Amino acid sequence: MVNAKPLVASALSTDAALIAIVPKVRMFDGIAAFTTAPVYPYLTYEEIFNGEALHADNDEVESEVSFRIHLWGTSSLSILAGHVNRLMHGIDLGRNYSMDQDELLDTGQVVKHKIMSYSGTFTA
Q1: Which of 27, 49, 56, 59 shows the greatest Cβ crowding within 10 Å of its Cβ?
Q2: In 1-124, alpha helices (H)
Q3: Pairing mode, if any, of strands 59-73 and 94-100?
Q4: What domains can be seen in the chain, in order of their start residue?
Q5: How does pLDDT run across 30-70, given as a tens digit for each residue?
Q6: Inter-residue contact 77 to 97 (CB < 8 Å)
Q7: What would you report as the CA-atom Rg of the chain, rounded to the nearest whole angstrom?
């Protein structure tokens, strides 16, 4: 089994262009937990699949992994999504889908929410 989470986290947290959009890259592995009101924009990511892709000589040779990245903001997320897409392709994760799903908060505020799914195969 390949642990690709550090690879994804590093790609998202060290890119200067992404940090320019999301200062102090507010990134969470899984659900974001805020003790105060969230500061937008931010992103969350989660591993949604990690399975054996190739097995040989009683060992796993390759793993297929999938990640879902959630972008959250109060204005257009297109530029942020472009940076995330570039970074994920840079670590050999291909985009499976992308969708917009705006959220209406209890306060009446509409938060933009873009969901992007990526997958790839890595040598174990």
Answers
A1: 27
A2: 5-14, 16-21, 78-90
A3: unpaired
A4: 5-123 (3.30.70.1700)
A5: 555 555 667 788 888 889 999 988 888 888 889 999 999 99
A6: no
A7: 16
